[in-house]
């Protein structure tokens, strides 16, 4: 897959996750494992996919945050 195709697939996964998020979750944030599961990457995201997510954050298509109160370094992402 090219970088553009990866970005499109990842954005589509975020859009699908956003649609299926519960109504009570007004601002759905998703971890990388949720995106991996959505695109069928059962062993997690490979470095190319992680880099595509980081590029989407730099491009302003996704927001990135650290989960409040979480001491681990697992970021969460949200569609802009």
Report on the architecture of this protein:
- By secondary structure, the chain is an alpha+beta fold.
- The protein contains three helices and three strands.
- The chain has a three-stranded antiparallel sheet with strand order 1-3-2.
- Helix 1 packs across helix 3 (47-58).
Characteristic terms for this protein:
80 residues; alpha+beta; 3-stranded antiparallel β-sheet; 3 helices
Topology overview:
Layout (H helix, E strand, L loop, with lengths): L2 H18 L9 E2 H8 L7 H12 L3 E5 L8 E5 L1
Antiparallel strand pairs: 1-3, 2-3
Helix percent band: 40-55%
The percentage of residues in β strands lies in 15-25%
Shape: globular
Distance between the termini: 24 Å
Question: Main beta sheet, described?
Answer: 3 strands, antiparallel
Order of helices and strands: HEHHEE
- The parts where pLDDT drops under 50 for at least 5 residues are none
Number of DSSP strand runs: 3
Task: Enumerate the strands of the largest sheet in spatial order, edge to edge or round the barrel.
Answer: 1-3-2
Overall mean pLDDT stands at: 87
Task: Give a short synopsis of this structure.
The protein has 80 residues and is of the alpha+beta class. It is built from 3 helices and 3 strands.
């Amino acid at each position: 897959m090219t970088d553009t195709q990866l970005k499109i697939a990842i954005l589509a996964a975020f859009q699908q996750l956003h649609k299926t998020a519960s109504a009570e979750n007004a601002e759905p944030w998703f971890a990388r494992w949720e995106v991996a599961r959505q695109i069928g990457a059962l062993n997690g995201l490979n470095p190319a996919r992680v880099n595509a997510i980081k590029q989407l954050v730099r491009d302003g298509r996704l927001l990135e945050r650290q989960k409040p109160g979480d001491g681990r370094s697992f970021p969460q992402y949200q569609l802009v």
